[in-house]
Amino acid sequence: MELQAVYVQILALILFVIGLLTAISRRNVFFVLMGVELALNAVNLSLIGFSKTLPGDLSVAGQIVPLFTIAVAAAEACVGLAMVILIFRNQESVDSDNYSGMKG
Question: How far is 96 from 56, CA to CA, in rounded Å?
Fold first, then answer.
């Protein structure tokens, strides 16, 4: 693996850890969603960076998979934000601790 690919993987790891810590440690639902999006984009960066080291057709596959991930992340963001808006109308808060009363 060439040196530039290693740097891309290190950057992707740092972004993934930041996104994971943000999603776990925050109470605000918007920050949780942003953390999940950051982690997904870090995985996309890792896949694209790794695909540069693969030969031929495999290189293209490593660049096509992130397109599907971006589509899934966009759908997740739309559904997640719609759920947050509906819950905010009922609870008048975006604090994730307030949602525990909605179980079962």
Answer: 46
List beta partners, residue 95: 28
Residue 94's φ and ψ, nearest 5 degrees, are -110, 20
The CATH code for residues 3-93 is: 1.10.287.3510
Considering only CA atoms, which of 98, 86, 100, 2 is closest in space to residue 50?
A: 2
Q: State pTM to two decimals.
A: 0.79
Cα separation, 62 vs 50, whole angstroms: 7
Place of tokens 């290693």: 6
- List Cα–Cα distances, 90 to 22, 85, 93, 100, in angstroms: 25, 9, 8, 13
The 10s digit of each residue's pLDDT in 50-97 is 888 877 777 777 788 888 888 888 888 888 888 888 877 877 777 777
Per-domain residue ranges for the chain? 3-93
Residue 93 phi/psi, 5-degree rounding, is -160, 150
